[in-house]
Structure formats: structure tokens, C-alpha cells
Amino acid sequence: MSKKDLIIKYGLKGTPNSGLIMATFGFFVGFAAVSLYGPVAKNFNNVMHMSGVLLGLLVAAPNLTGSLLRIPFGAWVDRVGGKKPMLTLLFLSVIGMAGLTLVLYFYYPEKISIKMYPIIFIFGLLSGCGIATFSVGIPQTSYWFPQKKQGFALGTYAGLGNTAPGIFGIILPVILGAIGLTGAYASWFLFLLTGTIIYLFFANDAYYFQLIQKGVSREEAIKISKELGQELFPSGKVIESLKISAKVPKTWGLVVLYFISFGGFLALTAWFPTYWIELHNVGIRQAGLLMAFGFSLLASFIRVYGGFLSDKIGGEKTAIISYSIVFIGAFILVFTNQFIIALIGEITISIGMGIANAAVFKLVPKYVPNAPGGASGWVGGLGAFGGFVVPPLLGIFVDLFGKIGYAKGFIVYMLLAVIGIVISVLLKKSSQGV
Fold it and tell me: Which GO terms of the cellular component aspect does the record hold (predicted)?
């Protein structure tokens, strides 16, 4: 029976290309929540009068759920396919955005005070669920493509989806200037709702999962799917993979490295707009542009080069170089309040983080060959947790030193970079025994 006949017989939908497009689309729609509060934090702070720590917690709120939910939702894909987990995360994000929009509509600006901080924080947590779509889209995409096309498919997925925070960092302040804070979030809510509906109607799981949902046995579903070109299938050993990888000490070293690079990336995507506004007195729109082009988009795109460099000279050497670049960028930012020099520091730290993000995942299968999937879950989920932990630490320096604390806070990144260099050197020394 031909492929076309099999598809018609079983009523299967979608193609690998459409699967990639919709997975990337769903990730893009949800991942934008990284920029939920960062570009407009000043607007909230003007009416809520938050301390530096509370401000840091608020801009980081979406990253808490966006990181910790990656592990269970990524594992869920192996059982039911990607569509249901992706829709669940997007739906939770829609609830968060709806709640935030309603709070702003009824209370902003006159009736909002620090007393409303908990509810705004909670809606930030819900909105941040969309950030966790990353771990859903990776296996969702992988199941659609044969091994020889995995690099292209996953590179396209991660590269394009990762641009969402940068793009929204540009768009949100523009909309803010045109229709105000409430209108800006109402527009975001409509975008998120529309995107979720589009995903609902046009996304499809890989053929294996569609067949399972139609009642076909696992063995038969695998047989039919192989005839249609699918090569990867769930092993049903996700929990076991997590357990095995958790017992490997180097897994936790990689978690720390990704906590610094990707967690640090998420943290600064949310924090940089506030940094530019408060320390350098630029407008909200200009701060969004500086964050997007000087940091977020640059780090996303240079991650591709980081993968190439890791293949060429090894992940350990690449990591040592990249964390050294992060240290240099942070050093520059600590000791300057001059705009041009600070911009050079931002670009430098962006390059280091982008390259490091690729280097870490180059090392995962090398050091945890028996359970790379489980290790990726720990590294991706707990590593992204840095996006929640770091901004409040930066806020402490603001509370201690006032305005100049926005610069001094990058001491945190200097220390993190040193930790990253030390771990990378230790991994390199041990690599001959791997």
C-alpha cells in the first residue's frame, strides 16, 4: 500500500514540514512571555513603588513556571504526543494574560498599589507557562523527522522560536506608546488567544501518536509510521531516563552551566529594559530596542555559531571561551555608566551566553550517554530556573546602592561566569576518561 493510501485509510493529517511550522509557531506564541513585564516594569513600578528585590521577582515571575514545567510537560509528550501538552500550556498562559488584562482594565493606574503585587505576580506565573512550550516542541518536532534531518528541524525550531522575547521587547513599548499599558496587554491577550486557536486547528501530532489515538496497537502503529517515514518512537522509559541521569554527577555540572547561560539569558532579557531605563535614562521604546538587538536576538542567532564551534573544537573549550566572554561583558557593565561602553558590555555578554547555550547541549550526550533524554530534561528545566533566581539578586544591589546598583548588580554575572569557567575546566580535564 502506498504512503498516500495509508494516510487516506487511517485518516492521518499533517506532514513533517507542517509539524515543524506549527511546533515553532506554538513555541513562539508561548515563549514571548519572557518579555511579559521587563519592557514595561517602569510603568508598574510607578504605581506600585516596589523594592529592587520585588521588582526583580516580578520581571522574573514568568520564568518560574516557564522553567520548572519543562520537565513534566516534556516527558508528557512521549505518552500523548505534543499537541495536548502544548495546548495545555498555551491555555494556562491565556488565563494568565486574561487575568492581567482585566486587572489593568479595572484598576490601572489609580487603584493599583503594592497590595495588588501578589495577584499580578500570580498572573505572571500563569502567563509564563507558555515559556515551557520549548520542551514540548523539541520532541514534537523530533518525532516528525528522520535522524538525518533532525539538525535542520531542531535548529529551525529553536532559532526562530527563541526570537519571540526580542521581537515582543520591540513591539510592546511601541503599542504601549500608542494605546497605553492596558491596551498593550489586551492586544497581547488577543494575539495569544488567536495563536492558541490557530494551533488547536492546524497542529497535528506525528503519525504514530495519531494512530495510537485511533486505537491502533503500538506494534502496528510503529509499523505503519515507519512506512510513512517516521524513525523515532517513544520508548516509554522517560522516568527511568530521568532517574539514571540524576545519578550522574556531571549532569548537575551541566545543569549549573545552563543555569548560568540560558537562565542568565532569560533573566537579562527581562532585566535589561529596566537597566537601560533606570540607569541610562532612555525611553521605554529605546530600551526595548536595546534589549532586543543588543542582547536577546543576538544571543539567539549566535547560538547557531556556538553549535558549529562546539563541533569544531569541542564543547568544553567552547564553554571555557564563552563563559570568559560573559565575564568580560559583566566586568564592563559593572564599572561603567557610560552608554556606549555599556552597550559594548551588553553585546559582549550576549555573545558569550549565546555560544555557551550551544556548548552545553553539545556536552549532554557525551557525559550522559546512557540517558541523554533525561539529562536534557534536567538541564533544560532546572537550567532555565536561573531566569527566575537571578533578577531578584540583581534587585538586591539596587536596594543597597540605589541607581548605581543597576550597574553593580552585574557582579552576580562575574561570579557566575567564574563558576562556569571552573566547571568547564574540570569537565575538560575529566573528558579523557569519558
Answer: membrane
The reported pLDDT for the residue numbered 432 is 65
Please check whether residue 258 is in contact with residue 380, taking contact to mean a CB–CB distance below 8 angstroms: yes
Domains, the chain, with CATH or none: 1-234 (1.20.1250.20), 237-434 (1.20.1250.20)
Q: How far apart are CA 159 and CA 318, in angstroms?
A: 19
pLDDT digits (tens, 9 = 90+) for 138-155: 888 888 988 777 767 877
Quote the CA–CA distance of 285 and 146 in Å, as a whole number. Answer: 43
| Percent of the chain's residues with pLDDT above 70 | 98
CA distance 198 to 229: 26
Considering the entire predicted model, what is its pTM?
0.89
Gap between the Cα atoms of 286 and 90, Å rounded: 29
Q: Of all residues in the chain, what percent carry a pLDDT higher than 90? A: 72
Residue type, 85: P
Residue 262 corresponds to which cell in the numbers above?
540560558
Q: What is d(CA 24, CA 137) in angstroms, rounded to the nearest whole number?
A: 7
Count of Cβ atoms closer than 10 Å to residue 160 Cβ: 16
11 Cβ neighbours under 8 A, 6+ residues apart: 214
Helices (H) and strands (E) in the chain, counts: 23, 0
| Selection from 253, 272, 18, 323 nearest residue 165 by Cα | 272
Cell numbers 546512557 correspond to what residue? 370
**Cβ-based neighbours of 111, under 8 Å, separated by 6 or more:** none
387-397 pLDDT per residue, tens: 999 999 999 99
How far from each other are the two terminal CA atoms of the chain, in whole angstroms? Answer: 46
CA 364 to chain CA centroid, Å, is: 18
**Whole-angstrom Cα distance, residue 75 to residue 53?**
33
Average pLDDT, the chain: 92
Cell numbers standing for residue 291:
534589549
Taking CA atoms, 204 is separated from 2, 227, 312, 423, in Å, by: 21, 18, 36, 41
What secondary structure does DSSP assign to 287-326, as a single string?
HHHHHIIIIIHHHHHHHHHHHHHHHHH-HHHHHHHHHHHH
Question: How many angstroms separate the CA atoms of 241 and 378, rounded?
Answer: 10
Question: CA 178 to CA 180: how far, in whole Å?
Answer: 6
218-227 helix and 3-10 helix, angle to the nearest 10 degrees: 140
